[in-house]
Every structure is written in C-alpha cells, then in structure tokens.
Amino acid sequence: MSAYEAVIGLEVHVELLTRTKAFCSCPNEFGSEPNTNVCPVCLALPGVLPVLNRSLLKYAVEAGLALNCEIASFCKFDRKNYFYPDLPKAYQISQYDLPLCRNGYLDLEAGGGVRRVGITRVHMEEDAGKLLHSEGDAGYSLVDLNRAGVPLLEIVTEPDLRTPREAHLFLEKLKQILRYLDVSDCKMEEGSLRCDTNISLRTAGSGVLNTKVEIKNISSFRAVERALDSEIARQRRLYEAGGRVEQETRAWNEETGGTLVMRTKETASDYRYFPDPDLPPIVLDEQMVDRIREGLPELPEARRRRFIEEFGLPAYDAEILTASRDLADYFEECIKCYHDPKRVGNWVMVELLRLLNANNIDIRESKVPPSHLAELLILMDKGAISGKIAKTVFEEMFARGKGAAEVVEEKGLLQISDEEALAAIIDGVIAAHPQVVEDYRSGTKKALGFLVGQVMKQTQGKANPKIVNKLFSAKL
Amino acid sequence: MEICEFTAHQLADLIRKGEVSSEEVSNAVFERIDLVENDVQAYVTLLRDNVLAEARVLDSKMREGKDAGRLAGIPVGLKDNLCTKGVRTTCSSRMLENFIPPYNAAVVEKVHDQGAVILGKLNMDEFAMGSSTEFSAFFPTRNPWDLSRVPGGSSGGAAAAVAAGEAICALGSDTGGSIRQPASFCGIVGMKPTYGLVSRYGLVAFASSLDQVGPLTRDVRDCALLLNIIAGHDPLDSTSAPVKIPDYTSFLTGEIKGKRIGVLSEMFGEGIDPAVAETVKKGIAKLEELGAVVEECSFPHADYAVPVYYIIAPAEASSNLARFDGVRYGYRAGSEAGTEPDLLDLYMKTRSEGFGPEVKRRIMLGTYALSSGYYDAYYLKALQVRTLIRDDYRRLFRKFDLLVSPTAPSLPFPLESELDDPLALYLADIYTIPVNLAGLPAISVPCGFAGGLPVGMQLIAPAFQEGELLQAAHAFEQNTPYHEMRPPVQGDASLKPAKGSEYRCPHMKL
C-alpha cells in the first residue's frame, strides 16, 4: 500500500464587527429579537438601493494586508443569483472575478518547521438571514432577517494544507489575526466564523491534484479536524478498494461523525454572476491603502518577537501573553506600572488566566485593571503582604474589583512586620511550648517550623515570616 | 382653456397671486378625471380625498403668507413604479397589486416637499416592460388623441393623463424610452435626464444601469421646473452623481442661434413611418430657420442598440425581479388543497401567476443571457458593444452641441395591433434606446401632427447638459404651436370600460 497524503484547502467566512450592516444602516448585532434589525433595504422591498458601508471596505483591506495579500486598486461587486427564503433579494452581493485581495499567505509553525499557506483571495460579501424550521410535521419555516446584509469576508486558501491538524492550526491563527485587527470575533459556535473545506488524496509527494470533495456544515475547529479525518478515511477506503472519488459536496454530521452527500456535480447551481449595477466599482488609491497599513495594530507574530526581545520573556511566556491582543495589551499596561516583566507575566499567566478561565470571563470584562495587579506586586515587594496572602488578596480583587491595598486593609491582611508586636506573640509561643523549644535547642531544627506555624496561626498568616524567623533565631 | 389644461408654471403663478386656489385647481382636475377617465383609463389608484384635504391645507398656509413650496397646489401624477408611503404601488402587476410601501421614493419626497399634491398612481406596462401600456396586468390606457390607439409606454398612463388634463404634470421612468415615446405619442414633453442626475431610490427597478426618473409635462418650462426639484445627489443611491444642479429655467432664453445640431441620419431610414419622418424633418427645418447649424451625421453602431438593450435590460431585470418570490410581500400563490407545501412549488406558482407574459419573456431572456456558457457570448459582448455606442456619441459630441432624431419610428398604433409580435413592439424604442445605453439626457418635444396624431422630436445632449437640451427645446417650442394643442375631451359613450378596469382603485386613502 502506498502512502497517501491529503491536499486540503479552506473556504472561510467571517462576519465583520462593523457597527451597521454592509449596505444599509441597520445595526449589525447578534442575538436581537427576530426581524428587528431590518429596514426596507435589507428586506429587499421594491425600489431600494444598497450603499456600501465604508467600514466594511476598511476592515477588508486591513484583513487583506494582515494576510499579506495584494490589495486591488480596482474591484467591483457582483450579484450571485439564487432563490432561497433567507436571501431577500434572491441575490447575494458578493465579489466574483475581481476580489479586493489576492495572493496572500499565512505562515504556520508545524512539525518544527514553517509551512506557508497561500491565500488565494479575500473578498467582501453580505450574509443571508436565518431559517428556523418547524419541528416534526408542522411543515413551516420561520425567517429571521436580522443577519441578512451583515458584512462578511470570504477567505479562500490554496490547497496547501496537508493534515487536518494543520487545517485546525490555520484556523486558530487566522482567528488570532482577525481578532487582533478587531474586525471579527470569529466565534464559530455563534456562526461569526464558518468554514468549508476541500479535500482530496494523492500518493505522497506526487504533486497531482485528484478529484476533491467539499465538506460543509462544520461548526467548530475541532469538528474541522474530525470531518477531515473522517473524509480522509473514506477516500482512502475508496481508493484502496479500487474505486473513484466523485466530485461532490458532503455535509458533516457531528452526531454520527461522518459525512453525507449534499449535492453532486450534476446538481451544482448556476449563480449567473454579473456586476451589480447598483454599486459603482471601487477604486482604491495607494495612499488610502498606505494609510490603512499604517493604522494596523502590531500583529501577533511581531508582538511575540518583541516580547521576547524587549522584555526578555521566555518564548513560551511570550506565546501565551500574545495569544490575544487584549491579553497582550493588559500585560503591557501592567509593566508600565511595574518593573519586572517576568514577574508580571507569571501573575498574568498563572493567577489571572486561571481565574478568567474558571469563571469563563473575557479579559475585557476582568475587574482587575492592570494598575491593580501592579499595586499588588508592589505591596508584596514592600513586605506588606506575603506571597501566600497575595493570592487570597488577588482572588478578592478579581471577585470584587477592589484595589490591592483596599482589600488588604478591609480584610486586615496587612503583614505584621512590627517587631515589638511580633516579639510579644513569640514570647507567648515560647512560653506555651517549652518542650518544643527544648527540642530545637537540642538540635531538632524542624521544631522551629512548628513554632513559626504557631505564630502564623495566631496572626492569621499575617506575620512577616522573615521577621518571625529572625526574632526566633535571636530569642532561642 | 380650462384650469386643468394650464401648465404647472402658469398655475403656480396664479396660485401664488391668489387668483385661483389649490383646491380649485384640484377640483378642476378631478372634474376632468370624472369626465374622461372612463375612456382614457390612466389611473390605477386615485387619491381624491387626500388631494382635496392637502390642497386645503396648502391654501390656508399660503393665506397665512407662508412659503408652500415651488409646486404649491400643483396636482401631480406618479407612474405606479414610484414608491409612495402608505399608497399601494403596483407596477401594474398582479405581483404587487396590494403592495403598500412604507416609504416614499426620493423624487416623491422632493415634489411633495415643494407642495405638489399627489393625484394618484398612473398605469404602465407591467414593471415598465413595454411600449404601449397594454402590458399592464390591469387594463390598457388609451391615447387621448384617439381612443382606439395606444398612448405609448411604458409611462403611458402618465403621458395620457398629462395630455388629457387628468394631471398637470407627472413623473415617469425611462429605461429604453418609456418617458419619451409615450410623450411623443400623446403630444407632450418628456425628458429622460442623464443617468445619475435623479435619484432612483424608491423607483422599482427594471434595469438598474438604464433606469432614470424624469418629468412628463405640457411644456418645456414645466419640464425645467420639475427637473429643478427632482435633480440632485442622493446618498441613498450610489449611482447618483455628486454634481451641482443649476437653475434649469435660467436656460430658457429662446436662444438657439449658432447651436450645432447633428441629425442622426440612420434614424430616418428603414422602418420609419414616412409621415413621422416628414413631420420631424419639418421640425428640424424649423430649428435651422431659428439659427441652429444643422448637419447630417452618422451613428455607426445604431443597428446594435436594440439587440444590446435586449440583452442588458432583461439580464438586469431577471435579477431585479427575482425578489418577487411570494415569501415576504406581494402576490403569493396558494398551494393546492391536499398537496404538501413545497418551496420550489411556491416560487414557481407565485411567479407564473404573478407576472404577465412580457415580464416572463424578459426574465427568461435575461436568465439565459447570464447563464454559464452564454455569459461571454451575450452579456459580456453586449457590454462591449454598449461601450462602442457610448464612443459613437462621444465622437459626435465633439462636433455637435445636440443631436436630433424622431422620438419613435411610428405614430401611435391601434390597440392590440402589435401585441402578438414582441419583436415589432421592441422596435418602438429603436431611437430612444441608444440614449439610455449611453446614459445621456434626451427630451421629446411635440413637433407636429400627422393624420391628427402627435409626433415627437427627440433632442439628445452630452451628459449633464440638460440646460442645453432645455434651451433648444424651449426655443423650438416657443416658435411652434404644438405644445398649446390639447386633445378633444368629449366622452365617448360607445366605449366600454376596458377589461380589467375593476382593478382600479378610485378612492384610496393615504
């Protein structure tokens, strides 16, 4: 049996986070009451006309630049014609032969090396509405057009991916970049990122392109991997049995973990694309593209490198701290108020991320602003609280949004460093435990631990351990 | 002359001076409507109560010395493809028979803001596809000059109403001649402005790259007056041009001396009614007599205009009209009792029953032209030839200020005479179509009569030169009597209401 390799390409749709829809001024919001974010334009009443949302164009150029694409100086909108109740105009405004962006790439770090995945094109289009089908035999469908006209980017890759894992990594990376740009939230579960895949098999290294199959209806990154695994197995079985792979579109079924035929080549639609006469072509001058390029935020790759070089962070830390733009921004805000990036990094990665994950909270909603975290670290440095207490304080800060000093004071957690006060307690402990004191003096060093523990117990952990140790040494 | 036969500018003066009230004007128009509407059948929907109420409001406003707008109290008719808030807008189609838009077309808003009172909605060929108004799904409109003949189309209701005194002026739409050809057939002035001069927002789209809203009026001054109001950039229409709008009435100087006018010789050739050719030639001679420099010229790609148009317009229409699917509004076919409801069935039945024959024909033509494997041979080729036609005009306008031709090749033809021959009917727009393909402004002015029927002369100008166009048309008009002629108004008792006239809605309330 010869070894097969998979040839995988992706077609990704992402909804853009513009304030209003692509061609009308309706709010672009997820989760509103059905058919409330609608107007004559997105309902396709007779006589209405589309007007391009300038933010859509800007976001699309930003995405194109971040994906290393060429930005077309001239592009246009086309109509993709088909009938479906979720498509009010019975055509989708899209871009056909002259997309806004072409010939880009994204580098993946996979298997120790870098794999460059080509981006064939990125184009602008509008979303359709949603159908809610009645259960059982009721025989009706409800139409919600809130989503109709929401701006989308379609991102098409070259068939450069070789494994389902790479496809998954690509999507993660794409999501990271688009979220850095703040053009999309890329939530596959909410449908703001959708992914269709194309896959064929060939003898490893042969360079030919065999008949490909498209897989649709995939609703998570994990499912992309599973669907591709399943399809690779199916195609492999076909080839090994001497059969043929038919060009078709298959639907992934999450429950069964397999795919089913949706449509074959023969039943493919003719979309009768033609230039939309209601929208003049878009002419982009270089200065405008340059302005957008200059306004791009630092992208994850560059930021990761900078975190290593500028702040001396280990590669692993830098990777985690730049996973999202918000987290990286948070980190950088913290180190404006605190001198030790490595220490801040540890607190962000260990304590903050733990609490965020445990409570399923986005860092944007965190009640601990960077200045509060810095404040906490400074309190520790001053010896006002111990590291152990600091963790308790941080949890309180996280839960209630209070500053570190405020929590410490409120809860009376201030470390006791007053030698006189501590000396009194220590004297009491020595008096109460003569036997242990004796043990210590006769050489049982661990007896000191017990004595310090007693002091901690009496001070609810607030005694400054350094001073307690020092005092014990002196007194004993 | 009766009040309802005055022009808008005359009436506006009289109303402003207080010599006649808006209410009197509206009443006069409704008296005329009551007298002739059974014969002419121009209106799909009349807004009688609404008009009178609005006229009274305007009168009291003006009595208080307030500015009631440049069209204060002028009763205006609207072609029924211009959306009117709260008033059904049918496009003379079963598909939209009961469709009531929640918004006004941009032009409706503009004339209403200037104090015009909206009389009602005028009959048309279904979705503006046709040249005789016989493709109205409801009933045909008759030509006021000869009730056995068509008024032209597709703005036939608008042209007939203005000619018959049933409206002082009207707004229509012109995709391939739909304002100019009926204006010619009904002996009035009709203008198609430059593509992009007037907002298309709220005009139910037929062919988006060709459609333009324009005035149908009794004289050139009224045309300029209406154009002043409806022209201008609209942010809701991406194809609307951000150009400065002059006062078009300032061009009406009567001066035409030295104007270089090219006569499109191809448009006097094969297929033209000799009586039309002769009448238009006399008109051209008049232009020369008035001092214009007239010279014959050639339009090499003239022959291709009609075929190109019948690729591009249906292609766009097939997409524009796809939204009429019975899902959200408009006509919806019922499913047969006892059968499972089925989506494809809903689409097919709704569209089979909701659209008339000409609309279906064009949807099929357009769908075919855009289909995979045919696109390059038809649609793409048509776009290329469209560019050649534009270039022809560009070349001609290096030499000439204006071009002149007949508006239509024939006189108004008898009702039902051309219905069975779509290709013959398509030729009714042979002289007007190239202008739409090039996006240029053109006007049809009455230039005489042949056998008692009006003949129109078409003047064409470079893009956004409506001023030039109006100037020449005005000079011609002021030196000819045709714009003052009105059709006979006696009702014809022998005529029965046309089939389908029960679709008319005489007293719709806003």
Characterization of the model:
The complex is a heterodimer of chains A (476) and B (510). Chain A has 476 residues and is of the alpha+beta class. Chain A folds into three domains: 4-288, no CATH class; 298-410, no CATH class; 419-475, Orthogonal Bundle (Arc Repressor Mutant, subunit A). Chain A contains 15 helices and 16 strands. Chain A has helices at residues 54-66, 164-181, 221-240, 286-294, 300-311, 315-321, 325-337, 341-359, 370-381, 387-400, 404-410, 419-432, 434-441, 447-458, 465-475, and strands at 4-15, 70-71, 74-75, 78-81, 91-94, 101-110, 113-126, 130-133, 141-144, 151-157, 193-203, 213-216, 248-253, 258-264, 274-275, 282-283. Chain A has a nine-stranded mixed β-sheet with strand order 2-6-7-10-1-11-12-13-14. Chain A has a three-stranded antiparallel β-sheet with strand order 5-4-15, with no helix packed on it. Chain A has a two-stranded antiparallel sheet with strand order 3-16. In chain A, helix 3 links the parallel strand 12 (213-216) and strand 13. The longest helix of chain A has 20 residues, at 221-240. The radius of gyration of chain A is 30 Å and the shape is elongated. Chain B has 510 residues and is an alpha/beta fold. Chain B has a single domain (3-299, 389-503), classed as Alpha-Beta Complex (Amidase signature (AS) enzymes). Chain B is built from 15 helices and eleven strands. Chain B has an eleven-stranded mixed β-sheet with strand order 1-3-2-4-6-5-10-11-9-7-8, with helices on both faces. In chain B, helix 5 (156-164) runs parallel beside helix 6 and helix 7 packs antiparallel against helix 15. Chain B starts with 7 loop residues before the first helix and ends in a 32-residue tail after the last helix. At the A-B interface, loops of A face helix 9 of B.
